[in-house]
Each structure stands twice: as C-alpha cells, then as structure tokens.
Design goal:
It contains eleven helices and 19 strands. By secondary structure, it is of the alpha+beta class. A hairpin with a 2-residue loop joins strand 11 and strand 12. Helix 1 packs parallel to helix 7, helix 1 packs parallel to helix 10 and helix 3 packs across helix 10. The relative contact order is 0.19. The C terminus is likely disordered.
Length: about 375
C-alpha cells in the first residue's frame, strides 16, 4: 500500500519496546512501516536496568519466547553489537510445598527442550544462592542461570534507530481517535492513516482500541508497584539472585544494600493497594524471617497489561478484523519477549510460519484460558 504519505503496508499503534521491535524487524524485511507513538517512547524510557527472567514456571511457551529473545539481545545488531546484558543475576524458583515442587519437576524436560537451562537444588543449595531464605521454608528449588539485567535505554534507542535506518517512519504524539478494522483506516488528531495491516501494540490500550473496532480481547491494565526495603547491610552489597515464590507471586532481588520486592497479582479489582501492600509485607516476613518488620518504600508505580492466562495475546484476528494483528498483554514480560515478538509479527504479515506455536497466545478469552492451564 505504500505510495501516499499516510498509506503504508503496516501501521503499528504503540510506542513501547514491543512496538519498536516490531517496527525494526518488519522494516528490515522491506515492509513499509509507520509507527504511531502517542507518548514518544525514546524520550520517556527510564535509564535504569531491568531484570529479565528466561524461565517461566508453568508457561513453557513463554519460556520459549524469552529464550529466543535472549539470543537476540546477546547479538543485537540495531545497537552495533553493543552488550545490552549488563550482568547475569540468576533466577531462583522456590516452590511452597511438595505438590508445587512436583509440578515444576514434571515440566523440567519440556522447559529444557525449549532452551531453558535448569538445575534442581536441595534446600541447602538454594540457601547457598540466597542465604536470606527461611531455613525451614522449602523442600526443593530450581536454579536458572538465564536471568539477566538489561540496559533498557540501549534497547529502546537501538530498535528506534534501526527501524529508521531501514525506512520506518516513527511518528510521536499520535493518539488514535478512531479505527475501522475492515478497511485498515485509523484516525488521529493529525490526520487519517490507511494500512494493509494494523498492529495493536499499545500495551493495555490495545484492549480499548480493539473494542472500538468490535474485537474483544482478554486483557486489561493492572496497577503494579515495586518496593525497596530499608538498608539491610551496613556496608557492601547484596549478592542475592532474582528469587520467586510462584504460589504467592513474591519476587525479590538484592540491589545495593537493600532488597527490591514485588508481588505479582492478576486481578481486575480496583482500590486494593492497601490490602496488597499488607500481603506483600506478610509474605516477605514469612519467606525471609530476618526481614520481618523491615520498612518497605515504593520506588515505582504504574500499570502492566495482563491477561487471565499470564500469556500475551499475539496473533492475527479473523473475519471482519483480519487486518488486525495484536501483540499485547505481556503481564510485565514485554521486555523479555519483544525480540521474538517482532519476528513473529513480521512473519504473520508476510504470510510465513513464525516457527512458534501461537495457540497459547490466541486472542480469544476461552483459548487464552486453555493455553495457560
């Protein structure tokens, strides 16, 4: 469809790392790309590094995408081969009881087949990795060395520069005011655009955009918060790996003289922040008795786009919505899955097999629930 200023092969709505990865991979494949970024992602990116975990317990299909993405980040041609992986921090998974441990052990083979490096640990070996854990709080653990800190600023700027180099037009301040899925026309305050394919990669906003075109997606925006404890060490720095307790969703990471603490929740309820904060403090004290009563201070608040299955919606819609491709609902895993997603969307547009089973990422609520079971 290229030839007119606001007409293109692919129109990407969104400006985060997933949208930029799609723009880069598609432009590199000689697809004419326009990306409408309402917020100017390059200017808004936080300079701090972010942890990325490759092993996704209970979601092998998610693990596959993060493994593929790690390989891309290790090379990352958009940044001239820059080393985006700042450090390998490891990923310690602590099942709460024997049943949960057995479930994780049963999927070890398929996780390894997806490229995840995993090592079962005894409780003593787990505490050697993280000595702050409750000595009596676990029967076993699983260690994955493929968890790393990523330079987000270089990722975002690298994808943006690479997309432009290959001809993509990245337009900022472009809020969408209307969309016709059947014709591929998208209206903004600055004019109308038309595309063969419209990609919804606007995080939680993708759900509202899809709904405006008559397409229901099983995703919503959920409040999220990250805490830092009071300083625990008088001097020196923690050497505590990224640790998760899957049953509760509690996650911790040693950072300087403190712990970073998060508690994952999947809920559409509003006004639950106080209850959530109390639950976080109680769970932290249970799993880390030495931290009982320690002060917790908010260091980040925001929203993440989530789905009931904790698996993104990735794929082409059908019927009257067949011009729409969706890439949203990553439940906080967008950074770890962005490179693989860019390649998948490229292949879907070109009519090629993406080499990934997209069934667990289906756009329908019922299929999502089945895929995440």
């Amino acid at each position: 469809m290229p030839g007119q200023q606001n007409t293109t092969d692919m129109l990407i709505i969104g400006g985060g790392v997933t949208a930029l990865s799609i723009a880069y991979h598609c432009a590199r494949a000689d697809i004419d790309v326009i990306m409408l970024d309402p917020d100017a992602a390059e200017a808004a990116v936080a300079p701090a590094a972010r942890p990325v975990r490759t092993y996704q317990p209970g979601n092998v299909h998610n693990s596959e995408l993060t493994v593929r993405s790690l390989a891309d980040y290790r090379a990352f041609p958009p940044a001239g081969g820059a080393d985006l992986v700042l450090s390998d921090v490891g990923w310690l998974v602590m099942p709460t009881d024997r049943q949960e441990a057995a479930e994780l052990e049963r999927e070890l083979a398929v996780q390894r087949a997806a490229g995840v490096e995993l090592e079962p640990l005894t409780p003593d070996q787990a505490r050697a990795h993280n000595p702050w854990l409750d000595p009596a709080g676990a029967e076993s653990a699983i260690w994955c060395p493929q968890s790393y800190l990523l330079d987000v600023d270089k990722v975002v700027r690298g994808y943006a520069a690479g997309a432009r180099e290959h001809g993509a037009r990245l337009l900022t301040g472009q809020a969408v005011t209307g969309m016709d899925a059947k014709s591929g026309r998208v209206a903004t305050a600055r004019g109308e655009f038309a595309a063969e394919t419209v990609v919804l990669a606007a995080e939680a906003g993708s759900g509202e955009l899809a709904a405006s075109a008559g397409l229901e997606l099983p995703l919503w925006a959920q409040s999220a918060e990250l805490f830092r404890t009071d300083p625990i060490l008088a001097d020196g720095e923690f050497d505590a790996p990224f640790t998760v307790h899957p049953a509760s969703g509690l996650k911790t990471l040693g950072a300087g003289r403190s712990f970073l603490v998060g508690l994952e929740r999947i809920s559409q309820q509003e006004g639950m922040r106080d209850a959530w904060f109390k639950e976080t403090a109680e769970e932290l004290a249970t799993r880390y008795p030495k931290l009982k009563g320690v002060g917790l201070h908010s260091v980040w608040t925001g929203t993440v786009d989530v789905t009931p299955a904790r698996t993104a919606c990735i794929g082409r819609a059908s019927g009257a919505h067949e011009r729409l491709i969706v890439a949203a609902g990553y439940t906080g895993q967008d950074l770890g899955q962005a490179p693989a997603t860019g390649r998948i969307i490229r292949d879907l547009h070109l009519g090629r097999s993406p080499g990934v089973d997209l069934t667990p990422f289906a756009l329908t609520p019922s299929a999502q629930a089945a895929g995440g079971a």
